[in-house]
Write a structure and sequence with these properties.
The complex is a heterodimer of chains A (about 130) and B (about 150).
Chain A: E1 7-10, E2 16-24, E3 36-44, H1 49-52, E4 65-72, E5 77-78, E6 84-87, E7 91-95, E8 109-110, H2 113-116, H3 120-125, E9 128-129
Parallel strand pairs in A: 1-7, 8-9
Antiparallel strand pairs in A: 1-2, 2-3, 3-4, 4-7, 5-6
Chain B: E1 4-5, E2 12-13, E3 19-22, E4 28-31, H1 34-41, H2 53-58, H3 64-70, H4 87-94, H5 98-129
Antiparallel strand pairs in B: 1-2, 3-4
The chains are: A mainly beta (about 130), B mainly alpha (about 150).
Amino acid sequence: MIQLKSRLTVIDNSGALVAECIKVLRNARWAEVGDEIVVAVKKARPISDKTSASLSAAKIRKGDVRRAVVVRTKKEIRRPDGRYVRFDDNACVLLNNQQQPLGSRILGLVAAELRFKNWVKIVSLAPRVV
Amino acid sequence: MKIELCNLSGYKIYPANGRTFVSKDSKTFHFLNSKCESLFHQKKNARDLAWTPICRKIARKGISEEVAKKRTRRTVKYNRAVVGASWEAINARRTEKPELRAAARAEAVSKAKEKRKGEAAKKKVARANAPQGEKFNKNQPRAATKVSRSGR
């Protein structure tokens, strides 16, 4: 249940740490796992000239507006077998305009709903899917 | 469908029941109901909650019935001698074969018969040799001895 002003942890290695939702790209108020949102980066890792060469092309700075996909929510998700799963935090992965992840690695686990919403690349990058 | 076990209480969680919680350090916890979930978040230890099977096991509740069932009493047979017959004599009689017993019995019977015959013969001889006058006279007057019927 991510909405305007919701803060999410960024769990890829794009450089951003905390992002704030500014738009839910769905004709709904809330975004759930697997929904795309527009975020403003609120906290980012400091970028030095040395590390910039090894990182991916995009340099994420504080204040950047990017697209992201929600991968974990504190609000429980209903599974087909009737079970509910909920995580301890809200998390997202930053995307570029072609809906590809910005970072090259994902740190932490993601919800299995991503697979059914066709975020295959993220699922394959994730170390663990719950 | 995997039947999970509740992380707090230890009960079985069947499909469509319970909730799963994934913590920040990626550990998965399964809860049977909101009671267990709430207690978990309060950081309660299952060993301190008296109603959980874990606590009951530690306090050894509900085990006494099982233990009582398992104990079966067995009667021990003792070989006892009786006054007048030692154990060996009893055992000998018990293990005696029926043919032997019959033979012994027949022998005893024949012996007894012989003995009786012998005694009868002796009596006859004694009677023949007794003096004449001592023959019993039926017509003799009876002695005045009264034998009361009541037997006093």
